[in-house]
Batch of 2 targets.
Target 1
Amino acid sequence: MNENQLSKRLERVGELIPSGSRLADIGSDHAYLPVALMLQGKIEFAVAGEVVKGPYDSAEKQVRKNGLSEKITVRLADGMEAVTAEDHITAVSICGMGGILIRDILEKGRVTEHLSGQEVLILQPNVGEPMLRSWLMTQSYTIIAEDILEENQKIYEIICAEKKASPANYTEEELTFGPLLLQKKGIVFTKKWQRELKQRRNVVEQLKKSKADQQQKIAALEQEIKKIEEVLKGEY
Ligand code: SAM
């Protein structure tokens, strides 16, 4: 992967970023995403935010190497603190982290008002998608696009959200499976949930062999298994 050849994951994230955006890419590492989008002429301006010095230096180097220092500002900062009101950010991407960390970055940004609430959010959690969707819902965001893809045997979900006048109210199933993914389903979606099903069945088998009382855990897992089976059978 480099600025000219993004990973399939970041390429799909890039496709969901609106053209002409003023982008804040938080946790930018090598700044591959903002640099690639700027080279494509897709975005107008970007902030690449990084909290760790090593990845921050890599991002700086990458931006300089591509002659984009005027258009991409690299900042060493925690989460949304990389952004100022003068940046007039219209889109925020946070990718390649756990869903809980992404949620915490957004929540801190909301409290400190570094996140105005007017930005389009393009989020790619590696795990913990339901918690992230739940935060989005409680903050009156509507999920406007979702994608799922497989790369190097890993399955990734991308969630794109925006505040709307009449925010959505998602069911437990929609928070777990993704409201739009649940409608689209598809091969990768099915593969992900078949894997999740197998994993849960294995855990139940192990728990049943345990000498301690695992009834509550087993019941909760069996409930999840039932839900996944229903979704895979097309009952949702
Ligand atoms: N976004 C890139 C991607 O998707 O390929 C890089 C993902 S990398 C696994 C996660 C990056 O997020 C790391 O470079 C890490 O230092 C950075 N990071 C983690 N927490 C952060 C925070 N609170 N603020 C800014 N950057 C953060």
Target 2
Amino acid sequence: MKKINLLGATGSIGTQTLDIIAANPDRFTLTSMSAGKNIQKVSEIITQFKPKLVSVMNEKDAVFLQKEFPDITIVHGEEGLIEAAVGIEADVLLNSVIGSVGLKPTLAAIEAGMTIAIANKETLVAAGDLVVQAAKQYNVPLVPVDSEHSALFQSLNGENPKRITQLILTASGGSFREFSRDQLQHVTVEQALAHPNWSMGNKLTIDSATMMNKGLEVIEAHHLFAMPYDQIECLLHKESIIHSMVEFEDTSVMAQLGSPDMRVPIQYALTYPDRILMANAKRLRLDEIGKLHFEKMDFERFKALSFAYDAGREGGTMPTVMNAANEVAVQLFMEGRISFMQIEDIIEQVMDEHETINAPSLEEILETDRITRKKVYGIV
Ligand code: MN3
């Protein structure tokens, strides 16, 4: 029986993780969880899965839930999020929190010796060096949940990492893949939120539309697979059937394929190195699909992707700044306070003005993150 602490339980990844736990009650148990403000859903999860500890965002909600469920521990806020990660002993922390707020709980779980199933890409972007270093120090596996990184991870099974020539991340192109930059000027939040292939949370869907999602994933891949940026490629592939590929020195390319279904990489992260039956999954039928399409990535069209390569190559606190600026800009776009194109403008401006701190400490990263968020609000 694998004990799972789940951060971000009411989000898209969290909900699908709970589906997997529910489908395999003899294999997995939910020991602890965190969520934001969806208290109705939290109550349902507690009733069904009976975790020992639950963290929510607000104190008011925590007080309400504690009355409803007197037998379990209810905590709240940022401290509560760390409690949810490590307050109850577990085998795995599945971190599907959105944003760099997932950093501290991830580090705490690493120090506690838990396997980290990482869906919280912003943490690896904001502080990848620190997280990877800590995982090495405590001898803790970092298992990717993101579909591209799971594909790379699976394609690397049994391979010698020294023989890799390239990691090739595939990208669907997001909701605006057919739009020119001119056409992007007046797009709406509703348009941006309609992703053609994947059903994901709002932040991730907007990030896909700007291509910042792929940018974050490039940095994530750099850290997870210790690969230089020159050896990480992005390829447009609108069907999202090939989830990513690895090229080796002998020119062989290993790919992982499947119907777009996030439960597959989530479940693999929980069962690795084994695989188990996936209930109600759509099997891949290439004869029905017929054709797969590939296109060279256009860095002029998708400026956010070049920001990410720049930030990654610069290193230090630059990816922290890029990520924090993006998080706030996406929030402001969703609130209708800035246009879609201003997301890029804000990130570019904030990165231009940042003086990189090399090999930053955790405190320096957290401070940089905080200052950047304030700065973006100042600009707007
Ligand atoms: Mn992905």
